[in-house]
Specification:
By secondary structure, the protein is α/β, with parallel strands linked by helices. It folds into three domains: 305 residues, ABC transporter type 1, transmembrane domain (ABC transporter transmembrane region fold), CATH 1.20.1560.10; 177 residues, Rossmann fold, CATH 3.40.50.300; 73 residues, P-loop containing nucleotide triphosphate hydrolases (Rossmann fold). 59% of the residues lie in helices and 10% in strands. The strands form three sheets. Strands 6-9-10-3-11-12 form a six-stranded mixed beta sheet, sandwiched between helices. A four-stranded antiparallel beta sheet has the order 2-1-4-5. A hairpin with a 2-residue loop joins β4 and β5. α3 packs antiparallel against α4.
């Protein structure tokens, strides 16, 4: 039997028992609702004619007991659905977050941005009054049948009202579905525009772009409001028509009942009973029409979540691999940036032994950051493979692999929390390990000068750190936990001379501990600490080999070309005839790195 790995289906299956209990509770709730019309018939037909107070008291006691039972059952049904919604959200929570993180690297990333709101809407739909309304709908034919039993004419009036309300629900579906979906798309686009403006707030203010950004957002928001208002107006019109229909049918039934009573075909109590029964029959249909906007939104949210999970399936668990030593191999890897239309890394191959330090150099736009993102497991590779200790990255669980990799991105972002929590990767901090990582990164003394030292709040809701300080804390975070592979993308772009010296010491310590290190740099001062160099241009490898060998050829302004069909993992030992001359802007030529 094939196992369903879709978390959304698992979450919904977890609510089946609760939904079954809700169906049974709805059965008894609707049976209890029959007490009111029966009580009305008995009062009008028996008590009023017999004038028996005892009968009235006994009937009132009985109906009170049933109505109390009705209240208890309604409370129980609400509690069951609330817990079912919480269970659905609890099951979805972790796989949804993991899927959102994976979706950021795929064409489905736009779905991921909406996923949290969709999951919340799904939970609210399961827990709210919409579910009881849908469970009451199957009882509409039962109550209409009871109207037929009282008299066929009353049944036909009730049936006509039910059909008209049902047709209004179908019309509401046809008219509002596409418009609400269009309004949702426009709203997400306007929201992303605001988020982009907030992320680039310094540039917006510094370049005087506030009015332009505001006008663009206002235009997008006006489109959202216009489409949503049109859909809401049509939906409100249909709701008004449905209310008019229900009241008109109610009046028609009373008129028909009075006429039948005058003709002595039914009793006066039957008029009141038929009115109550028909109101109960039409109530679920009317409520469904009134909540159709929520139904459409819930169905759209379910479809988006389903597409999100299907487009970014959960990776297989695999075997738990041992801690790697750090032997890294890249074999013909091709990397496409998120949303890009062409690769930024093309058939790159090389090998690096544990304890080796590799510098990746090249001009801006050469593909260096894209390459290290693939080596860090941040971006997937379109072709080729990245292996650590012989195991392809796809054989690893992403979270477990990340614990063996220390990655410092080019743009360092810190989380809301203390300095120690950020260095410890938001996990349970080991004080000694945090301090050791900070010292290796050359950040210990600077951290102690903060208001509360390692306990200083930073990030979104804390103290704003300078670019250089953020880079030092990010370097300490990359080193924390003794990772086997450390990847640093321009780690000294914001460092001063003291920071450069601290970085050189950190690289020396990492090498002494046998860790594999990859450094992307534009500064020649770092090159004195590396063993190998990889020169990139336009996403391809121009040269790879020992540092002194590559530097010597760079000083001669010539490096060996690597043909696209050749495996570039081989070390290039000598200049060859016809070598491609390297332009001075490919990499800075270091004169003191030896």
């Amino acid at each position: 039997m094939k196992t369903d790995t879709n978390p959304l289906n698992r979450a919904l299956r977890s609510s089946y028992a609760a939904l079954g209990a809700t169906f049974i509770l709805s059965l008894f709730i609707n049976v209890c609702m029959l007490v009111s019309p029966i009580y009305s018939m008995q009062v009008y037909d028996r008590v009023m004619s017999s004038r028996s107070v005892t009968t009235l008291v006994m009937l009132t006691v009985i109906v009170t007991v049933f109505l109390a039972l009705y209240g208890v059952l309604e409370y129980a049904r609400s509690g069951v659905l609330t817990r079912a919604g919480l269970r659905v959200e609890g099951i979805l929570r972790r796989p949804l977050f993991d899927t959102m993180m994976r979706a950021e690297l795929s064409p489905a990333h736009r779905l991921g941005a909406q996923a949290i709101r969709d999951a919340e809407l799904l939970r609210e739909t399961v827990s709210s009054g919409l579910a009881p309304t849908l469970f009451d709908l199957p009882w509409t034919p039962v109550f209409i049948t009871l109207c037929f039993l009282l008299h066929p004419l009353l049944g036909w009036v009730a049936l006509f009202g039910g059909v008209v309300l049902f047709v209004l629900a179908l019309v509401s579906e046809k008219i509002t579905k596409s418009r609400f979906e269009h309004a949702g798309r426009l709203s997400r686009e306007a929201g992303m525009m605001v988020q982009a403006a907030l992320r680039n707030g310094d540039a917006v203010r510094g370049l005087g772009m506030g009015d332009i950004v505001l006008n663009r957002w206002a235009g997008a928001q006006s489109a959202v409001v216009a489409v949503h208002a049109e859909a809401s107006e049509r939906s409100s019109a249909l709701v008004a028509v449905s209310k008019f229909t229900r009241m008109a049918v109610q009046a028609a039934l009373l008129c028909a009942g009075a006429w039948l009573s005058i003709d002595q075909q039914i009793s006066s109590g039957s008029i009141m009973a038929a009115s109550i029964v028909m109101a109960r029959a039409l109530a679920p249909i009317e409520q469904t029409v009134a909540q159709w906007k929520r139904i459409v939104a819930c169905r759209t949210a379910y479809s988006r979540l389903k597409r999100l999970f299907e487009s970014t399936p959960e990776p297989r668990a695999g075997v738990s691999l041992p801690r790697p030593a750090g032997h890294l191999e890249a074999d013909g890897i091709v990397v496409w940036p998120l949303g890009g239309n062409r690769p930024t890394v093309k058939s790159v191959s090389f090998s690096l032994q544990p304890g080796g330090i590799l510098a990746i150099v090249g001009a801006s736009g050469a593909g260096k950051s894209s390459l290290v993102k693939a080596l860090a497991g941040v971006w997937p590779v379109r072709a080729g493979s990245v292996r650590i200790d012989g195991a392809d990255y796809t054989q690893w669980n992403g979270v477990k692999l990340g614990k063996h990799i220390g990655y410092l991105p080019q743009d360092v972002e810190l989380f809301s929390g203390t300095v120690a929590e950020n260095i410890a990767r938001l996990g349970e901090a080991d004080d000694q390990a945090v301090i050791a990582a900070a010292k290796m990164a050359g950040a210990h003394d600077a951290i102690l000068r903060l208001p509360n030292g390692y306990d200083t709040p930073i990030g979104e809701s804390g103290l704003a750190l300078s670019g250089g300080m953020r880079q030092r804390v990010g370097l300490a975070r990359a080193i924390y936990g003794n990772p086997s592979l450390v990847i640093l993308d321009e780690p000294n772009s914001n460092l001063d001379d003291d920071g450069d010296r601290a970085l050189a010491r950190a690289l020396a310590n990492l090498k002494a501990e046998g860790r594999t290190v990859i450094v992307v740099t534009h500064r020649p001062t770092v090159l004195g600490s590396v063993d190998k160099m990889l020169v990139m241009s336009f996403g391809q490898v121009l040269a790879f080999g020992d540092r002194d060998d590559v530097m010597g050829r760079m000083r001669g302004n010539r490096v060996a070309a690597v043909a696209p069909s050749e495996p570039s993992r081989r070390a290039i030992g000598h200049n060859v005839p016809g070598a491609t001359p390297i332009r001075p802007d490919v990499v800075p030529v270091a004169t003191n790195a030896s």
